[in-house]
């Protein structure tokens, strides 16, 4: 763009280079990095501990775990599910208690309404009886024209506990004085309220907020990698064949790069070599061995047992550092962005 072009003043004040520089130094924007081979898990390492497996087991989806690590994970998830179920049962009990209290209140309201009607009916009957006994010589029209005060004066006064108030004498009654027990304390630090102060800036802690309703928890334990249900009986013991020059007593396995070989052909195993586990024997062989040798007669070459397609479990191997391996090698961390 030349200096005298039409849109020469339309360039951004905050340039792209400045944005990239501020993002790297200030932490704004999505942080993205391509992983190298050193940041990729080896094929024989546990998906939880990221260390070479001591007692390896594999799931039916091909994910490798250390037996102790995956059993501790399953036990922990079961305890967590049991605790969630206890909280859910307490919520159901509270709901049932609220329903029972509401039904009891409704029944009490109906009973009070019936008693009020019954009391009004009994008073009317007593008034009629009294009028009929004292004014037998008067006609019905005289009662209709008699002032209300005369009719009330003819009725004997009722005890204070059973006196019925009318609209005319409401102005004579004085309001009851409020006692110290009925008056509410305005201080939020009185009694046990000091330890239960609400946070008015958090919606879930306001006085009018209700507890979040819990849903019925799922009792299944899911694989931490695949997200599918997993049980202890689904775990299959895995056997790796050590290379000829590898001795775990002299040198730790984590320090050896090429430590395992195929149980049939003797080829080295690694992230760049697709491999699978035979369910009948538990040994790890290469997929090339399966396609060229084992699938011809579908017999386990180690134990001699008959194999099916479900007995061959392809292992989920790690990446190689190359984009052609099919493994996602880009790591992204979303962070606040400057607009």
* Terminal Cα span: 25 Å
CATH superfamily of one domain: Zinc/RING finger domain, C3HC4 (zinc finger)
Just give the CATH class of one domain.
Alpha Beta
Radius of gyration: 42 Å
The 3D shape can be described as elongated
CATH-derived topology of one domain: Herpes Virus-1
Structural class label:
alpha+beta
Low-confidence stretches: 140-152, 158-183
What proportion of the residues is helical, as a percent range? 25-40%
Order of helices and strands: HEEEHHHEEEEEHEE
Count of discrete alpha- or pi-helical segments spanning 4 or more residues = 5
Main location: nucleus
Subcellular location: Nucleus
Keywords: Coiled coil, Nucleus
GO molecular function: ubiquitin protein ligase activity
Can you describe what's shown?
This protein is of the alpha+beta class and about 350 residues long. Helices cover about 30% and strands about 10% of the residues. Among the domains are: about 30-45 and about 240-320 and about 330-339, Herpes Virus-1, CATH 3.30.40.10; about 65-125 and about 215-235. The chain has five helices and ten strands, in the order H-E-E-E-H-H-H-E-E-E-E-E-H-E-E. The protein is elongated. The model is unreliable at about 140-150 and about 160-185 (pLDDT under 50).
């Amino acid at each position: 763009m030349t200096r005298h072009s039409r849109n020469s003043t339309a360039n951004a004040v905050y340039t792209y280079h400045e944005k990239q520089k501020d993002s790297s130094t200030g932490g704004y924007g999505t942080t993205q990095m391509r992983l190298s081979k050193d940041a990729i898990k080896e094929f024989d390492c546990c998906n939880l501990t990221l260390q070479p497996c001591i007692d390896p087991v594999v799931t039916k989806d091909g994910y490798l775990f250390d037996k102790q690590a995956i059993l501790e994970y399953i036990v922990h998830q079961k305890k967590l599910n049991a605790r969630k179920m206890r909280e859910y049962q307490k919520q159901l009990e509270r709901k049932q208690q609220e329903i029972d209290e509401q039904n009891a209140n409704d029944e009490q309201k109906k009973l009070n309404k019936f008693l009020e009607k019954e009391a009004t009916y009994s008073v009317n009957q007593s008034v009629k009886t009294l009028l009929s006994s004292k004014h037998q010589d008067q006609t019905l029209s005289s009662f209709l024209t008699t002032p209300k005060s005369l009719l009330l004066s003819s009725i004997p006064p009722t005890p204070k506990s059973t006196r019925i108030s009318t609209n005319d004498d409401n102005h004579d009654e004085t309001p009851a004085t409020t006692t110290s027990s009925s008056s509410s304390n305005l201080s939020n630090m009185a009694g046990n309220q000091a330890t239960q102060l609400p946070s008015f800036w958090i919606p879930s802690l306001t006085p009018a907020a209700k507890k979040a309703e819990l849903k019925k928890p799922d009792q299944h334990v899911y694989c931490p990698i695949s997200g599918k249900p997993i049980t202890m009986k689904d775990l299959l013991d895995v056997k790796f064949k050590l290379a000829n020059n590898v001795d775990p007593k002299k040198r730790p396995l984590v320090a050896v790069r090429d430590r395992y070989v195929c149980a049939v052909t003797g080829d080295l195993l690694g992230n760049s070599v697709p491999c699978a586990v035979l369910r009948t024997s538990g040994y790890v062989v290469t997929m090339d061995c399966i396609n060229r040798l084992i699938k011809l007669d579908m017999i386990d070459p180690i134990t001699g047992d008959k194999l099916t397609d479900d007995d061959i479990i392809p292992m989920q191997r790690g990446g190689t550092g190359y984009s052609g391996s099919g493994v996602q090698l880009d790591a992204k961390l979303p962070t606040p962005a400057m607009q």
